[in-house]
Amino acid sequence: MSEQQNPFDPPTKPIEKKQRLLQPGTKRLLLIQIVTVVMLFLGPSLILFPLVVQIPFGFQVEARFTQLPENDDQLIQWLRDQPGIMERFVSIRRVRENKEKQTLIINFSQSKNLLSYPWVPDFNSVLDEFGYEPSDVEFVDSRR
């Protein structure tokens, strides 16, 4: 009857270099080292990827007003100064519904990262400053 060798006992004959690389403990250590190196390189890029990638989004918002200023130059300039706004893709159109109400339609493109930053500008916060008097609703997304 042959005795089983205790795995904790040193081997009876010297192990060749090739055999040492193929031992189970060595394979596991090599795998851990490879995974560690890969994570060191990929980890930061996986974290930074959503912050760095920019995607253009198109928006169309509208609101009804009882009174509009003579022109929309101040609103256009304010919008172009907002973070991520693509200056070439800003337009404002006025639609007269009747003598008392007009609809203001604003089209613009904004470059956002994958975390949706920067946020869509808050048009409602500057209406009074530029002379717009809303009638019943604030700006809403008009692309349904």
Describe this structure in words.
- With 144 residues, the chain is of the alpha+beta class.
- The protein folds into two domains: 17-51; 54-141, Alpha-Beta Plaits.
- It has four helices and five strands.
- It has helices spanning 17-21, 24-52, 73-80, 127-130, and strands at residues 54-67, 85-96, 102-113, 133-134, 140-141.
- Strands 1, 2, 3, 4 and 5 form a five-stranded antiparallel sheet that branches.
- A hairpin with a 5-residue loop joins strand 2 (85-96) and strand 3 (102-113).
What is this structure's SSE topology?
Layout: H1 17-21, H2 24-52, E1 54-67, H3 73-80, E2 85-96, E3 102-113, H4 127-130, E4 133-134, E5 140-141
Antiparallel strand pairs: 1-3, 1-4, 1-5, 2-3
Protein structure class: alpha+beta
Shape: rod-shaped
- The count of DSSP E runs of length 2 or more, i.e. the number of strands, is 5
Question: How is the CATH topology of the largest domain named?
Answer: Alpha-Beta Plaits
**CATH class term of the largest domain:** Alpha Beta
Which regions have little confidence, pLDDT < 50, spanning 5+ residues? Answer: none
Beta-strand residue percentage: 25-35%
Give the rounded overall mean pLDDT: 85
Q: Percentage of helical residues?
A: 25-40%
